[in-house]
Amino acid sequence: MVTAIIHGFILAIGLILPLGAQNVFIFNQGANQPKYRYVLPAIITAGLSDSLLIIIAVVGVSIIIMSLPVLQAIIYIVGLIFLMYMAWTIWHDKPSTDGEAQIISPMKQVSFALSVSLLNPHAILDTIGVIGSSAALYSGSNKIAFTIACISVSWLWFFLLAILGKM
């Protein structure tokens, strides 16, 4: 069981550390929100989304998705459209003229965190492809330990990112 925990922990660290849309969003919320507690909607949404993706991957959905080329292509196309939309909105977003950071509402935090978590092709490929196939090595309590380790790293990382944003 210790091997499964260490494997899940190290694998999840390697997958979550690269700064993608989700990590940058959480970091920015940590930096822009006046109090740490105002970042919690974004952290909780990102954590729950990652937990959901990890659990789906571990229970075997990755095997189904990776064996159906049409479904795989749909995921890639949706991810491409999402990334193009994100690039377009960022490119055309007008910076604030007063020099103040933009504070967004909890509902906007939740909706944006959901989009960068569940529509992000990087997150989907990491969880469904890498974590799902790695979880196939384990069964029973070892698989549960592996899953909990992966989920724990995800949650810890989001809290840490928000704290680092505050510094």
How does the SSE layout of this entry go?
Blueprint: H1 2-16, H2 21-32, H3 40-67, H4 69-92, H5 106-118, H6 121-135, H7 141-166
Folded structure, characterized:
With 167 residues, the protein is mostly helical. The protein has helices at 2-16, 21-32, 40-67, 69-92, 106-118, 121-135, 141-166.
What gross morphology would you assign? flat
Rg measurement, Å: 17 Å
Straight-line N-to-C gap: 37 Å
Stretches where pLDDT is under 50 for at least 5 consecutive residues are: none
- The number of domains is 1
Biggest sheet architecture? none
% residues in beta strands: under 5%
Q: Which oligomerization state do the chains in this entry correspond to?
A: single chain
Total strand count, please?
0
Structural class: mainly alpha
* Mean of pLDDT: 85
Summarize this, please?
This protein is an all-alpha fold and about 170 residues long.
Task: Label this structure with key terms.
80% helix; 167 residues; 0% strand; mainly alpha; LeuE-type; amino acid transmembrane transporter activity; transmembrane helix; cell membrane
